[in-house]
Amino acid sequence: MIKSGRRANIQAVIDAYANEPFWGVRRRMVHALGNANSETALTGLVQIIAAEQDPLVLDGVLRAAGNYRDARIQAAVAQRLEAGLPPLATQAAYAALGPNAAPPRLNCYWRPANAPPSTALPKPAPSAAWPPRAKPERWKRCWNE
């Protein structure tokens, strides 16, 4: 129905989505909506992003939303991110927002607060005992430097 591109057909799929109990069918529906490239599908995806709670479907919804570069989609995805999402849905949400939307902490690592950069760390002597484990307050995030 969605391939026809008619607004009535796309709206019928959006209306049927709310009543569909099986998660697999809902995933196929949002995938088709993501490929529809129409204003009606975009509006439906915004509604579905706000309403969907099933973690099996939620990542598919957010991936389908990634096909649209619209402020309404971006606002709906950002709102869902703030509310908290399962791990796969979080990954799909950042992909839907675009390559520059991921927070810097995703590409970061932890290191001691007083340690030099990892390339300048000296290698320990083979006979040296392991240092005691650092306390959490002595560690800092590298993006807060």
Give a written overview of the molecule.
With 145 residues, the chain is mainly alpha-helical. It has helices spanning 7-19, 23-36, 39-51, 55-65, 71-83, 87-97; strands spanning 110-112, 139-141. A two-stranded antiparallel ribbon has the order 1-2. The longest helix is centred in the first third of the chain and has 14 residues, at 23-36. The chain is globular. The N and C termini lie far apart (53 Å).
Summarize the structure.
The protein is mainly alpha-helical. It contains 6 helices and 2 strands.
Helix content: 40-55%
Shape: globular
Distance between the amino and carboxyl termini? 53 Å
Rg, nearest Å? 22 Å
Major beta sheet summary: 2 strands, antiparallel
Strand content: under 5%
Q: How many β-strand stretches?
A: 2
Low-confidence stretches: 104-109, 141-145
Output the structural class.
mainly alpha
Number of helices: 6
State mean pLDDT (0 to 100 scale): 78
Order of strands in the sheet with the most strands? 1-2
Helix and strand string, N-terminal first?
HHHHHHEE
How would the blueprint of this fold be written?
Layout: H1 7-19, H2 23-36, H3 39-51, H4 55-65, H5 71-83, H6 87-97, E1 110-112, E2 139-141
Antiparallel strand pairs: 1-2
Helix pairs in contact: 1-2, 1-3, 2-3, 2-4, 3-4, 3-5, 4-6, 5-6
